[in-house]
């Protein structure tokens, strides 16, 4: 049985992939904390309500002509990083990275990753129990 065919596992995997990529972006922010004129970046927040709406949509939008409006096409890159808005704190060299803020985001992202892992583990235990291959 392929677990990736189950929507719950697909969503948990997506969340873990997003968290891993966000940790990479945040670590780049921290490593550039002393780089002049560096602007911190972050990933767009995952919106599972939007993802579910796309899954149950009866018709998928496709661009069949270059003349079609681009606004009707879903984004190609789910986890596109974006430059953050100007913060209230900036160093004299123009660097806008606030280490405390970045470390808080790292901790939040780790919590979200761990939640997705726990969700997958509990559902795997439930499936094993239902198949008679696990349990007390």
Q: What does this 3D model show about the protein?
A:
The longest helix has 33 residues, at 99-131. Strands 1-2 form a two-stranded antiparallel sheet. It has helices spanning 7-31, 48-56, 99-131; strands at 41-43, 81-83. It has 3 helices and 2 strands, in the order αβαβα. It has one domain.
Short overview:
The chain is mostly helical and 136 residues long. The protein contains three helices and two strands, in the order H-E-H-E-H. A two-stranded antiparallel ribbon has the order 1-2.
Gyration radius from CA atoms, angstroms: 20 Å
Order of strands in the sheet with the most strands?
Answer: 1-2
Give the helix level as a range of percent: 40-55%
Spatial separation of the terminal alpha carbons: 23 Å
Shape: flat
- Total number of strands: 2
Major sheet characteristics: 2 strands, antiparallel
The helix-and-strand class reads mainly alpha
| Strand residues, percent | under 5%
pLDDT averaged residue by residue? 80
Domains, number:
1
Unreliable residue runs = none
What pattern of helices and strands is seen along the backbone? HEHEH
**DSSP summary: helix tally:** 3
Please name the defining characteristics of this protein.
136 residues; mainly alpha; two-stranded antiparallel ribbon; 49% helix
């Amino acid at each position: 049985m392929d677990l990736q065919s189950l929507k719950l596992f697909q969503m948990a995997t997506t969340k873990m992939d997003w968290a891993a990529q966000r940790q990479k972006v945040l670590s780049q922010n921290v490593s550039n904390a002393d780089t002049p004129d560096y602007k911190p970046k972050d990933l767009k927040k995952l919106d599972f309500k939007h993802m579910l709406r796309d899954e149950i949509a009866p018709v998928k939008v496709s661009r069949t002509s270059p003349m079609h409006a681009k606004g009707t096409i879903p984004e190609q890159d789910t986890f596109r990083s974006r430059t953050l808005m100007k913060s209230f704190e900036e160093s004299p060299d123009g660097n806008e990275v606030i280490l405390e803020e970045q470390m808080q985001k790292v901790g939040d992202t780790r919590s979200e990753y761990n939640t997705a892992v726990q969700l997958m583990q509990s559902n795997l235990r439930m499936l094993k129990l239902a198949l008679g291959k696990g349990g007390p």
